[in-house]
Sequence to fold (637 residues):
Amino acid sequence: MVLGFWGEKMKYFDNYIERIKERGNVALAEAINKTDNDVIPKYISNFSFKEHIVSLLVGDVQSGKTSHMFGLMSAAADEGFGIFVLLTTDNILLQQQTYKRAERDLSDFCICDENDYLKFLDNNMKKPSVIVLKKNGRVLKQWKNNFASTQFCAGNPLFIVDDEADAASLNTQVNKNKQSTINKNLDEIKRTSSSSIYLQVTGTPQSILLQTIKSGWKPRFIYYFKPGKGYLGGDFFFGDEEQIGKRIILTDNNEATELLDDDEFPENGLKSALILHLLTSAHLFLSGKMVSNFLIHPSVKTSEHGKFAEKVGDYLNEIAYEFDEPETKNSFKEVYEQLQSTKSNMVCFDEAYNFIGEQLREDKIAILVLNSFTSYDDNTQYERGINIIIGGNSLGRGVTFPQLQTIYYCRVAKSPQADTMWQHARMFGYDRDSDLMRVFLPPKLYKLFSDINRTNNSIISQILNSENGCDVKISYSSGLKPTRKNVLDKKAIGVYSGGVNYFPFEPVNTSIDEIDELLNNFDNDVYSVSLKLITKLLGCVGSESDDWNNKAFIGFVNAILAENPLAQGKLIVRRNRDVGKGTGTLLSPNDRKIGDDISDEVVLTMYKVTGNKGWNDKKLWIPNIKLPGDMVYYSGN
Fold:
């Protein structure tokens, strides 16, 4: 039995779950309970109270991570953790939203704001404390000093929960042999106590997965929780090409300037998207809803946001002016029929059209601009009414738009980063009508999102299929980077290109007899084989130098297996090769051509050399591996 601070059995987790159930969220309570059952016994209950552990909680974007965070914090309080630090991004509104939510959901905790040091001190471990802080250098330094000045912090473990941990916490000076301010302050906060658990939380873990052990920020364990029923995520939008033409509408534009420079631009789909949003809003409002949002993501340039707002305003004026014209009504009718293809029970067209006319005449359709010059506080209007929201980077982390039904993208970054792009995908969430969802975007952007979704699924599969979820490898199509390069140690990150032959210059065999046995049934030929056999073979070969990392290649093959346990590769076996050491990839022109002609599978060529030419007269198996596709593979080993 675990005793509370006053000798009573602690039941913080039970209380938290009961509050969720009282709000009618039984399914959410069950999901949080599963996370608790999976994580607490294995990683928290047996905490040593003498080390600093970094861990990672992964959930899909806008899938309810905060609820699971609070669940783990409540369960950790039941295990004797009494001091919690809850970190948010450096935004006053988001910090305050998190603080108020913690007050509501963790009502039996002592919840402290950034200026509540005396409240924290007076609590003196009577209740578990939660201090909600922005990831701001001044704020973190102040609380580092606060923790250091108390008598009870040094002897009690800290439980630090870092929401959006990949956003600002990692060391951005790693390649300059320095430590960035936020990263240093977080390190120092950990060290004010004798031990700590640092729980990183994010929906885009790419930069964290590629951290090194030396950095101190590579997770000891990773846990992924599945989204609940009704969640619309990456697979819904980008996992099935049959969605193209239904919920995914491909446009001809690639840049916002193309839209702004073209006075008519009939082919870009923006006016159709606006009409679709009006019809969607009509159905929602006539069905009793109170909000409907349309998001336009044109560019990072704030100057273009205002111009887009003007364009949309011109469209609305044009529609209102010509609303009684048959041509306008026919345009709406065409879009209505497209919506009906997925929403069979749409309100009748005339009723919807009349509703839209009323909204236009009464000027009830809001155009809102969100960017660095317009704070979220000024735009709480998007929580009610019919809204058209236009913005850039401010549409990313932490911003949630209720009943977001229509999205229009026309921004393709010159050097796209997977984690940043995915965080801008605000269409993910629960409170959407799946039948009315529509995303307008250019083909290039659709391809990038599809590639990111494929890799996300691979990451999740690897987490679920590996012990502690930590041996995760990442691959993207060339031209798409996993994350920003300033948080990755370029000396330690392995980057491999698909279609390139890799072999060890100083090969070694851990057991030539074991390789002989594995290949005993294979003649000198080309075979389709299980990738599991290829991992077995890779485990028997290596290099005396660091020019060839068999563990990295095994990891990449295992990543493919995590998605498909029956995945096949090509094995080329050649014996009695009388080739000399230091002669390139060792492949004969014929074998090179065989491998080059196979672009969508792993190709492992195993050469057994006679040892006569520079191999110390020893027979030896030499591997040559080629990873599939026009891809780039990343390893944080």
The chain is about 35% helix and 20% strand.
